[in-house]
Amino acid sequence: MAWSTRELAELAGTSLRAVRHYHEVGLIPEPERRSNGYKQYGVSHLVRLLRIKRLVDLGFSLSQIAAMGDDDHHPAEALRALDAELAATVERLQRARVELGLILRHHAPADLPPDIAPAAGGARLSEADRSLVLVMTRVMGPKHVGAYAEMLRTVAADPTDGEFDSLPADADDEVRQDLAERMLPHIRRIRAEHPDLMAPDTEAPRGARFVAETAAAAMQELYNPAQLDVIRRVGALLKDP
């Protein structure tokens, strides 16, 4: 019994391309050729191809299959390792589905981590604010991330939020000062209701100083000069009794 490459592929339920690739990587030996130059495959080739296809369907990579050789009794260690990989993949996919459900339910930004995204969805953050949150979640400790998420969930929007977001870079001094003064009560209320946000981030992986430096650098890049000036003015007003 001899088959052509196409016939072999059809019998195994795979493609010509797959058979040729298995030849290229050394998983299937090249068969003898007929007098007309066409390859002729036998039962041993079909058996080998079916075994390769089965292992690929189970999740083994071609390099893992190559390492197994022609042994019909595949090492239990390799099977256990594959099972562990598949279990981890299933867990990751289940976690991703849960996170996608939260994102869809809360209309949350998909780029934010799961402990922040639901809260951020209701907060209607500007692009700059969302970028800042994304950066800060990478450097803050877990308690500060939780406190920030709680703040986003519970703090009501303030009329000055939109004004700050749309403040042009060339806003004059009077406009900046007026906005800072009107923002002050809202900022004071946030600080009073969420004192954990103001405490040093002692759990930050790289320390509280790194958190502060990262925040300053991010804000410098994300907000325009007028917005940064308003933030500085609010800070000065907060220090006044």
UniProtKB/TrEMBL annotation:
Domain HTH merR-type: 2-71
Record Pfam families: MerR_1
UniProt keyword annotations, A-Z: DNA-binding
PROSITE patterns: HTH_MERR_2 (PS50937)
DNA-binding listed as a keyword: yes
Nucleotide-binding as UniProt keyword: no
InterPro entries reported in the protein's UniProt record: DNA-bd_dom_put_sf, MerR-type_HTH_dom, MerR_fam
Record protein name field: MerR family transcriptional regulator
Species for this entry: Pseudonocardia xinjiangensis
